[in-house]
Amino acid sequence: MDFEKAKKRYEERKAPPELLREVNKMFQKKNKMKIIVASVVAVFGVFAVTLNVNVAFAKTLSEVPGFSGIVKVLTGNRYAFHENTFDAEVDVPEIAGLKDVELQKKLNQEFRDYADTIMAGFQADVKAMKDEYGEDSGHLGVDVGYAVKTNNEKILALDLYVVNTVASSSTVHKFYTIDKKENRLITLDSLFCEGSDYVGVISPYIKSEMKRANEEEGASYWIQDEFGDNFKAIKVNQNFYLNEAGNLVIVFDKYEVAPGYMGAPEFVIPNDVIESILKV
Amino acid sequence: MQSKKEIFQHYINENMDQIYRFAFIHTKNKQDAEDIVSESVLRALSAINGLKEVQYMETWFYRIILNTANSYWKKKNKIILMEEMKEEGVCDSYRNTDLYDAVMNLEMKYRVIIVLRYFEDRKIEEICEILHENQNTVKTRLYRAVDKLKKMLGEESISNGF
């Protein structure tokens, strides 16, 4: 009896996307806090770092393609760790050519510290997993990397991300947007006039975009969630960067406003939305 | 480190189609299948601490789906169940039908075993775990299920040494 054809027919049936969305909400309800806590631990965790002997150390300098101007972002240190089902790959960015040498030094140090912290946390996780489940327990991986979002005459925007993989993956982003002319790190509030309610201006726009995307593009942003996990407003220090065109881009972490499969959503804020409160 | 719950969520996200299909064979309609999947996930979440070893997550969850589907039908209108059972009894009318249709018209316990073995390509040992039955029972049931299918399709039963 040949089941191949019948099997194919069986496999034609696919789960409706709404179902996956619904089901993911059930996890989200309690999970969200945990993810945030975990990332905080990762950032402020143990600082005393002794990298395992298995950690291969290699220094590579590779220029990021597409950079413009004199300021470059290079891969400073690269760590790799592979042991059975445990993998870590860490690319630490290094900024070069910034006029403000002190700022550059400070940022590069911050990147290195951050990577060290993540690695230390990873080592601790590996140990905990081995202690609990034995040598050949599940997969555990961490991937630290960066992406140059913008590098033009005015702006250097860097996304430093950490992807944690333990069966499923979560990603935490840290954005650095540097004003090359003024030689300073741009914070979200520094873009707006003092005392202006930028959270109250940007949030409704994002909410309407989420609604539109849900209706027109089949997106699954959490805006009408019976679990009460609705997106209400951006944080005062929400992740953001400025894109090549100089537009403000608001970024959310994975699981922050949508199920994991939607990744880390980005919203470009049109200038006319924030025009009236933008600092010139 | 990642909790069982996170591993479970990953499993669900990676295997939603397969899970949905397995729920679907118990219902024959989308809404019921969706309800069964949702309820199974809820049940699984509340019971996840009872899952001792992560590698048994899938068989554990399949058992939950089976139990959910059973109690779902008990709750639902019993007339539907009766009708379905009546349908299952009528073997001869399925001559010349497709094998897939025949499988979907098998009695539930045979349907489940055929799906697990031939549509999901599971090993006998895995099926034993999912159904909490011993190998002999599973093999016998599988054998009977195939035999029933052959009869339904008007093929010679058993003799060709399947």
Features:
heterodimer, A: 280 residues, alpha+beta, Heat Shock Protein 90, Actin, Chain A, domain 4, 7-stranded mixed beta sheet, 3-stranded antiparallel beta sheet, 33% helix, B: 162 residues, mainly alpha, Rna Polymerase Sigma Factor, Chain: A, Arc Repressor Mutant, subunit A, 0% strand, disordered C terminus
What does this structure look like?
- The complex is a heterodimer of chains A (280) and B (162).
- Chain A has 280 residues and is α+β, with helices and mostly antiparallel strands.
- Chain A folds into two domains: 56-185, Heat Shock Protein 90 (2-Layer Sandwich), CATH 3.30.565; 189-277, Alpha-Beta Complex (Actin, Chain A, domain 4).
- Chain A is built from five helices and ten strands; from the N terminus they run H-H-E-E-E-H-E-E-E-E-H-E-E-E-H.
- In chain A, a hairpin with a 1-residue loop joins strand 5 and strand 6.
- In chain A, helix 2 packs across helix 3 (101-133).
- The longest helix of chain A is centred in the middle third of the chain and has 33 residues, at 101-133.
- Chain A is globular, with a radius of gyration of 21 Å.
- Chain B has 162 residues and is mainly alpha-helical.
- Chain B folds into two domains: 1-76, Rna Polymerase Sigma Factor, Chain: A; 91-162, Arc Repressor Mutant, subunit A (Orthogonal Bundle), CATH 1.10.10.10.
- Chain B contains eight helices and no strands.
- Chain B has helices spanning 4-24, 30-47, 57-75, 78-89, 99-104, 108-119, 124-131, 135-152.
- In chain B, helix 1 (4-24) packs antiparallel against helix 2.
- The longest helix of chain B is centred in the first third of the chain and has 21 residues, at 4-24.
- The termini of chain B are far apart.
- The model of chain B is unreliable at 78-83, 85-95 and 158-162 (pLDDT under 50).
- Chain A binds chain B through residues 1-3, 5-7, 9-11, 13-16, 19-20, 22-24, 26-27, 30-31, 34, 125, 128-129, 133, 138, 140, 164, 166-169, 260-261, and chain B through 1-3, 5-13, 16-17, 19-21, 24, 30, 34, 37-38, 41-42, 45, 54, 98-100, 103, 115, 118-119, 146, 149-150, 155, 162.
